């Protein structure tokens, strides 16, 4: 059942052109596909086309219908036997978009037809060689009843007209050869925003954004973001858009974030619609970043695509890196870096430690949709970032130019990308390539010893060593080529360099099991500041005391290290409260934090981030054998002491940040962020509950409204309930806003949580067929309501499993996402594990379980 990367075979046929004629109907959509096929080389194998859930109506070659012995059809394939080396194959088949609840292929989203073909959805539309290395030029005629006014497909419109009194058509042509996963069709009635963009070389591009009726004003920000992304890609990479028209359609039913179909992106409406009243600063940020991500795919993904799906990170890691760089330029480098590091630590490290562990270029896949992972995407982006760090911005740009020079119009591999990068540098990247084949999170350990010589000179010797723990998929690990940003500082903040000159431009390369360097100083107190800017996707073990951590905060050059030092300090405090519950955090620590606050009082960006206590999920990554309620109680106890010990400082910050008229600018974002972080701390003190209520009442934007509601999670139940009820009454009509309300309810740590979730699932706006709703209720519970999901009696696991059994029959892709926390039992204490495995067993024994769930559940149960 599994496919292996090593088994790749070039295609036996090529398909130069695809002509599709699609007559839309909810239950009887007719697809006529005309393919010009050429045999590759001298073989006599049949032409095998993929098909899934299709019913074949007719098949002919060069106009002559095939007889029964010239083809065979099964559930998953159509084989055609012919001796011709070049021929035109015409296939007619019927599909039923209305019945398609898996949201793969052609389906109906709230009345509009739309498609999702990546990874293997095109085979649910028609029979085809559904693999990314088949590149064809598409011509698509969309036919529909006139009650469906807008008919869209990839490329440029070339014809339109009437078929008869009730039916019309539009014909589209996309001149760029593309794999079928980039095919798209959309048909419906939308509001349309239009704009245009002129590229540096003077090409005029029409921009069109399609949104649900009545939502036009919520599309403005997305369109502006698109223009910023187009400009940025020209400025930074010299890449221009290549068609006359760029269309984006927002739909409500969508499995993922968005899809980069050539010239016709389809988006989850959550990543398009945004305005001050209904969207938070994070929502605006996400809209801009996803719009840019899909746009950037036009070069990294579409013009140069993947040879096979094992190479997914070729386009995704690279495109995520590009969108991260864009966001950093549009907003702030530091908050972006922190945001992405949080994703790595909370989710990617957890994946590495689980049965789903895989390298950024996987070796073995059962269901491709299961590999759109934080490893392929986010660790993939970290690997690209390391190229960027090692080659520098100019070297990286040379490598990218060479990549496009060599591979424009091709379907290629990660090795092709590496080789283009290699051509742009004198560094030998051979060992670096291991990042593509080795899974797991490397741990970098720092050891420091001193020796004083007769003249009073202190010789400091530092050893950095690396070790990657075995993962479920790979027992043996080899040393990686790791760029480690490093500073050595003393208590006054003076920085030192090593005698061996291994530190170059603030970076060492750790490539063996360990390396050593020495520093001479007059003081015995030097602090190694390691992994600046998170220069590699690794964990660090650096045994520093509180003093050293505070020194880093005070004096390190790298703001990421400064933030991280505070995170480490907080992690230590939580650990103390786990080991001795009820103990008090020492005054030294509080006064250190107070000094830090005073030092940064005017830098609200860093200050805000430094006041965030590591999430439960992040804390899990530096622990094993986790007893959830003990860790959760310790974290909560620390938060409570934090609020009490720093009440005066917190209040001072809170009062200093005055409420201004809303604007979406970086300084205003920093202010709102900092103020809301502080409010969440103060909300733990009953005397400040009124601040939460008053912010809720007076807020003129969703960031502050939601900030108040999140804070209210720490207030009394009655306050929380009353604000939530008001919020629902105000926003009942807006499903995207209601998702936030769903999620807040689902993450409440309350005894009546299951009654609450059942109530949410019965809400008139809830539907199991809508992935956004399911993710905000069931997903939020499983991923972020740690105490209730991990209740020791197993009730949380059972609740989620019961739901997944139903959901899997409707939408397996979404079910397979939400099962993730259940499959990650390895980190938890045995009293949790027993229950988790029991529920996984129920899933595995279920008749008719999807491939998606089967792969994750069976791997999880096989891992010990
Ligand atoms: N290529 C899309 C993106 O990253 C994601 C599509 C994934 N779809 C899926 N069914 N797995 O922008
Ligand atoms: Zn992508």
TrEMBL record:
The EC number on file is 3.4.11.2
The family classification in the record reads: Belongs to the peptidase M1 family.
What are the record keywords, sorted? Aminopeptidase, Hydrolase, Metal-binding, Metalloprotease, Protease, Zinc
InterPro entries with a match to the protein in the record: Aminopeptidase_N-like_N, Aminopeptidase_N-like_N_sf, PepN_Ig-like_sf, Peptidase_M1, Peptidase_M1_dom, Peptidase_M1_pepN, Peptidase_M1_pepN_C, Peptidase_M1_pepN_C_sf
Q: Which cofactor does it need?
A: Zn(2+)
The name of this protein is Aminopeptidase N
- List residues of the Peptidase M1 alanyl aminopeptidase Ig-like fold domain: 440-542
**Gene3D superfamilies, from UniProt?**
2.60.40.1840, 3.30.2010.30, Neutral Protease Domain 2 (1.10.390.10), Peptidase M1, alanyl aminopeptidase, C-terminal domain (1.25.50.10), tricorn interacting facor f3 domain (2.60.40.1730)
Q: Which gene encodes it?
A: pepN
Please give the function described in this protein's UniProt entry.
Aminopeptidase N is involved in the degradation of intracellular peptides generated by protein breakdown during normal growth as well as in response to nutrient starvation.
CDD domains from the UniProt entry: M1_APN
Example GO molecular function: zinc ion binding
One Pfam family per UniProt: DUF3458_C
What reaction does this catalyse? Release of an N-terminal amino acid, Xaa-|-Yaa- from a peptide, amide or arylamide. Xaa is preferably Ala, but may be most amino acids including Pro (slow action). When a terminal hydrophobic residue is followed by a prolyl residue, the two may be released as an intact Xaa-Pro dipeptide
Q: Which residues form the Aminopeptidase N-like N-terminal domain?
A: 20-182
- Peptidase M1 alanyl aminopeptidase C-terminal domain spans which residues? 547-862
Q: Which GO terms describe its biological process?
A: proteolysis
Q: Which domain of life is it from?
A: Bacteria
Task: Write down the NCBIfam families for this protein, in alphabetical order.
Answer: pepN_proteo (TIGR02414)
Q: Which residues form the Peptidase M1 membrane alanine aminopeptidase domain?
A: 221-434
């Amino acid at each position: 059942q599994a496919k292996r990367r090593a088994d790749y075979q070039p295609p036996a046929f090529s398909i130069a052109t695809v002509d599709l004629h699609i007559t839309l109907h909810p239950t009887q959509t007719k697809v006529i596909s005309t393919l010009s096929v050429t045999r590759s080389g001298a073989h006599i194998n049949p032409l095998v086309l993929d098909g899934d859930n299709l019913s074949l109506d007719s098949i002919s070659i060069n106009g002559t219908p095939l007889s029964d012995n010239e083809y065979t059809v099964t559930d998953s394939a159509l084989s055609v036997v012919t001796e011709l080396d070049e021929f035109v194959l015409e296939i007619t088949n019927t599909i039923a978009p209305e019945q398609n609840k898996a949201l793969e292929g052609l389906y109906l989203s709230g009345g509009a037809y739309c498609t999702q073909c990546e990874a293997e959805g095109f085979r649910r539309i028609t029979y085809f060689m559904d693999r990314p290395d088949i590149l064809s030029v598409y011509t698509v005629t969309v036919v529909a009843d006139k009650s469906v006014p807008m008919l869209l497909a990839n490329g440029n419109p070339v014809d339109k007209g009437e078929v008869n009194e009730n039916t019309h058509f539009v014909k589209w042509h996309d001149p760029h050869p593309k794999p079928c996963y980039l095919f798209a069709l959309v048909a419906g009635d939308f509001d349309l925003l239009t704009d245009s963009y002129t590229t540096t070389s003077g090409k005029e591009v029409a921009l069109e954004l399609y949104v649900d009726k009545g939502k036009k004003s919520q599309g403005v920000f997305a369109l502006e973001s698109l223009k910023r992304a187009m400009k940025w890609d020209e400025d930074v990479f010299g890449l221009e858009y290549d068609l006359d028209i760029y269309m984006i359609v927002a739909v409500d039913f969508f499995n993922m974030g968005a899809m980069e179909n050539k010239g016709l992106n389809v988006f989850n409406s959550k990543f398009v619609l945004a305005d001050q009243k209904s969207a938070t600063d994070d929502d605006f940020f996400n809209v801009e970043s996803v719009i840019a991500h899909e746009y950037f795919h036009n070069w990294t993904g579409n013009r140069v695509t993947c040879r096979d799906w094992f190479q997914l990170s070729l386009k995704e890691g690279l495109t995520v890196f590009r969108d991260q760089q864009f966001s950093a330029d549009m907003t702030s480098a530091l908050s972006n870096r922190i945001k992405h590091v949080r994703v790595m630590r909370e989710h990617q490290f957890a994946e590495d430690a689980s049965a789903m562990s895989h390298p950024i270029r996987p070796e073995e896949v059962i269901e491709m949709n299961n590999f759109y992972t934080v490893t392929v995407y986010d660790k993939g982006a970290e690997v690209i970032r390391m190229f960027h760090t090692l080659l520098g911005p100019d070297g990286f740009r040379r490598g990218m130019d060479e990549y496009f020079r060599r591979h424009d119009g091709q379907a290629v591999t990660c090795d092709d990308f590496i080789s283009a990068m290699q051509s742009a540098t004198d560094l030998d990247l051979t060992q670096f390539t291991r990042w593509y084949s080795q899974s797991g999170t490397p741990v970098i350990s720092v050891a420091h010893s001193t020796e004083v010589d007769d003249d009073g000179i202190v010789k400091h010797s530092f050893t950095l060593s690396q070790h990657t723990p075995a993962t479920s998929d790979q027992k043996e690990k080899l040393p990686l080529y790791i760029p480690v940003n490093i500073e050595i500082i003393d208590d006054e903040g003076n920085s030192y360099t090593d005698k061996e000159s291994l530190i170059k431009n603030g970076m060492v390369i750790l490539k063996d099991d360990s390396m050593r360097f020495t520093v001479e100083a007059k003081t015995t107190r030097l602090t190694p500041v390691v992994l600046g800017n998170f220069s590699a996707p690794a964990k660090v073990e650096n045994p520093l005391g509180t003093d050293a951590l505070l020194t880093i905060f005070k004096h390190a050059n790298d703001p990421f290290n400064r933030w991280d030092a505070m995170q480490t300090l907080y992690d230590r405090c939580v650990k103390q409260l786990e080991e001795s519950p009820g103990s008090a955090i020492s005054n030294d620590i509080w006064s250190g934090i107070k000094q830090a606050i005073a030092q940064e009082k005017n830098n609200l960006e860093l200050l805000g981030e430094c006041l965030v206590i590591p999430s439960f999920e992040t804390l899990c990554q530096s622990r094993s054998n986790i007893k959830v309620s003990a860790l959760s109680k310790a974290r909560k106890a620390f938060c409570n002491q934090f609020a009490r010990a720093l009440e005066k400082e917190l209040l001072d910050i809170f009062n200093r940040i005055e409420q201004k008229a809303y604007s979406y600018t970086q300084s205003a974002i920093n202010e709102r962020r900092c103020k809301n972080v502080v409010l969440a701390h103060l909300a733990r003190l009953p005397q400040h509950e009124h601040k939460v209520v008053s912010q809720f009442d007076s807020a003129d934007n969703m960031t502050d409204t939601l900030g108040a509601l999140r804070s209210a999670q720490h207030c009394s139940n009655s306050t929380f309930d009353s604000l939530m009820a008001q919020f629902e009454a105000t926003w009942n009509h807006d499903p995207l806003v209601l998702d936030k309300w769903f999620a807040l309810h689902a993450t409440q740590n309350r005894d009546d949580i299951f009654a609450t979730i059942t109530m949410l699932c019965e809400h008139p706006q809830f539907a199991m067929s809508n992935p956004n709703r399911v993710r905000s209720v069931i997903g939020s519970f499983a991923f972020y309501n740690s105490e209730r999901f991990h209740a020791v009696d197993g009730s949380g696991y059972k609740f989620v499993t019961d739901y997944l059994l139903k959901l899997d029959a409707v939408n397996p892709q979404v079910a397979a996402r939400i099962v993730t926390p259940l499959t990650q039992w390895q980190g938890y204490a045995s009293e949790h594990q027993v229950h988790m495995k029991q529920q996984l067993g129920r899933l595995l024994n279920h008749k008719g379980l999807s491939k998606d769930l089967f792969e994750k559940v069976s791997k999880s149960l096989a891992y010990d």
